[in-house]
Design brief:
Blueprint lengths: L1 H13 L6 H10 L2 E3 L8 E3 L1 H9 L3 H13 L6 E5 L3 E5 L2 H4 L1 H9 L13 E5 L11 H19 L3 E8 L4 H14 L16 H13 L18 H15 L1 H25 L6 E4 L12 H11 L3 E4 L2 E4 L10 E4 L7 H14 L4 E7 L6 H10 L7 E6 L2 E5 L2 E2 L12 H8 L1 H8 L8 E4 H4 L7 H22 L7 H6 L6 H8 L1 H11 L3 H20 L7 H24 L9
Helix pairs in contact: 1-2, 2-3, 3-4, 7-16, 8-9, 8-10, 8-11, 10-11, 12-13, 15-16, 18-22, 18-23, 20-22, 21-22, 22-23
Length: 580
């Protein structure tokens, strides 16, 4: 129906004086015809007259009055009214208004899907936590967000690939390896443990698992603690150096085992969190700087050859002048070691070379300052920084029994994602992570998430779904073998259902807006409002006490509401409940 109205409006706009095809297209693109917020303003509303008046220097109210007359004369709509500064409100005939019910019955789980993405090839890289420990609840918000926007973009016509970048090279992995080794031989070191090593029960568990399959024996344990400086950071670096020198074979065995163990735990936790990835990309696959055939070496050489990188004071720098970054960035240190940034440059070149139309990076808010330099590297390597879309996710503060839960991977005192799933379930966790705009701070109350109250929006929405499912079941038991004549039902829709029908009509637009803005919380807000409309209807109407015709009409409508709630939850990676 919206498509038909837009066609009629376009014909009207085209008939105006001094207008060409380009202007018609501009007006069409900038204006919108949407489901009205309130039935008092009709079923549909459009701002096309205000947009056209602004571009054509006309009076918006006069234009709206002319369009009102034009649309009214078509006889297609029950009522057309010009309103306010130039809005047009349209009321449909009842049979047209109720068509959405038939659409939902036909499309079922596909209701709300569209092709606005036009099959754009989109890559979403998210979480990408260092494999130095289990995922904690801070990672959970990025996991829920990245996975949700992947599902939403897929449902609206994009071709989506989700990727996890595994930082399996560099100093943090060396610290992990040293932490496990020292924990294994801690008794031989008189219970010494480095101040800046990774702590926590998982380090000890990895060590125990390793020793069940391998023998760890150092001929000169004392050399491991030789020449240790007092500075904690320098201390752990010296221990790493001593361990590598003492027994390189044990070092590589423990490193490989520790990485595999933690990556497996990450994959297991994400599977339980209903998050999956199409690909897992290893940083180590980018190769070494001293290997001219490696991706990291090729990237830096290309930047040099194109004059976008230069040498100064023994280091290699990226020129970021064109990107608006505040300073040039080091790619290779003066001692010949590549920086983390060099690996990121090579990785993003790899992503660009794979031919994606859009690269969506989901980062923690503390990475804000990193955006300009990555944009600079993409531009410098000959692509367009417009490909890169960075979505920042604020940290989630977890509260339990009124107290903030502490989180620190290095100290080992943290609430893991696995703990959260066991505490409230994956679905409730995903819901609350997505319940607020991702770049805003989130206070996550575990006690509220587990409560059976109206204040618990997750429970409130799931209860609506389960309640309707129960009604459908009881209706079928009361009316076995009842013939479902959809056309007859549509002609006699119970008048009190109108608000519910109007609400579910909004759903496809909400999904499209969520995809365009990359904001899954819009779907949660919508589901909250739809659930509220249903619960109000249910409290005011004794469904199973109505006449058989009314009862069938109501259940037909409520089934569409249930399907819409189900579709919305599924888009967020949440399983709708049939029983509570």
């Amino acid at each position: 129906m919206i498509k038909t109205i837009n066609q009629k409006i376009e014909i009207f706009i085209s008939s105006l004086d001094e207008i060409n095809d380009d202007l018609v297209k501009t007006i069409t693109n900038k204006s919108s015809t949407t489901i009205s917020e309130n039935l008092k303003n009709g079923h549909l509303t459009t701002n096309v007259c205000m947009v056209a008046a602004s571009l054509l220097k006309l009076d918006s109210k006069e234009l709206a009055n002319n369009l009102e007359k034009n649309l009214s004369e078509l006889g297609l709509y029950k009522d057309v009214k010009a309103a306010g500064p130039g809005f047009i409100n349209i009321t449909l005939h009842r049979k047209d208004f109720a068509l959405v019910l038939h659409q939902i019955i036909e499309e079922k789980q596909n209701f709300g899907e569209s092709n606005i993405g036009d099959n754009r090839k989109v890559q979403i890289e998210f979480i990408s936590a260092n494999p130095t420990g289990p995922l904690h609840v801070g990672h959970g918000r990025g996991a829920a967000y990245g996975d949700a926007i992947g599902r939403i973009l897929q449902a609206t016509g994009s071709s989506v690939e989700k990727e996890y970048y595994i930082n399996d090279a560099g100093r943090q992995i060396d610290i992990l390896t040293a932490s496990v080794i020292v924990k294994i031989i801690q008794k031989e070191l008189d219970n010494f443990f480095p101040q800046n090593a990774y702590k926590g029960a998982y380090i000890e568990s990895i060590g125990k698992e390793f020793t069940l399959k391998n023998i760890v024996k150092y001929n000169d344990v004392g050399s491991i603690l030789k020449d240790l400086p007092s500075d904690p950071e320098e201390e752990i670096d010296q221990i790493i150096s001593n361990l590598k020198r003492s027994d390189e074979k044990i070092w590589h065995l423990v490193k490989s085992f520790s990485l595999e163990s933690i990556i497996k735990s990450i994959k297991d936790d994400l599977r339980d969190f209903n998050v999956d990835f199409d690909s897992w990309f290893n940083e180590s696959s980018l190769g070494k700087l001293n290997d001219n055939s490696s991706e990291i070496s090729k990237s830096i050489n290309k930047l040099k050859d194109d004059g976008m990188a230069y040498e100064k004071d023994g280091a290699v720098w990226l020129n970021t002048d064109n990107s608006g970054d505040d300073k040039h960035r080091v790619l290779v240190r003066d001692d010949g070691r590549a920086t983390y940034f060099a690996s990121d440059v090579a990785y993003h070149k790899n992503k660009v070379d794979r031919g994606y139309d859009d690269l969506i990076n989901v980062w923690g808010a503390d990475h804000h300052g990193y955006i300009k330099r990555i944009e600079a590297s993409i531009d410098a390597l000959g692509s367009s920084k417009e490909k890169l879309i960075v979505k920042l996710v604020q940290f989630a503060n977890l509260f339990k029994e009124g107290k903030k839960v502490k989180m620190s991977t290095r100290t080992g005192e943290f609430f893991t994602l696995k703990d959260l799933i066991e505490e409230i379930g994956a679905d409730a966790a995903r819901f609350y992570y997505l319940s607020k705009q991702a770049d805003q701070h989130l206070d996550f109350d575990l006690d509220l998430a587990k409560s059976d109250s109206k204040e618990n929006i997750f429970y409130y929405i799931q209860y609506a779904h389960a309640r309707i499912f129960s009604l459908e079941k009881k209706f079928k038991e009361m009316n076995p073998g009842l013939d479902t004549n959809i056309e007859a039902i549509e002609k006699n829709i119970y008048k009190e259902c109108d608000n519910l029908i109007h609400e579910i009509s909004k759903y496809p637009n909400v999904v499209n807006k969520s995809a365009i803005t990359l904001q899954p919380h819009l779907i949660i807000f919508y589901l909250r409002d739809l659930a509220q409309s249903f619960h109000s209807f249910y409290n005011d109407n004794h469904v199973l006490s109505e006449s058989k015709d009314n009862m069938q009409s109501i259940v037909f409508c409520l089934s569409a509401v249930r399907q819409t709630i189900s579709n919305g939850l599924e888009l967020l990676g949440i399983k709708p409940m049939k029983k509570m």
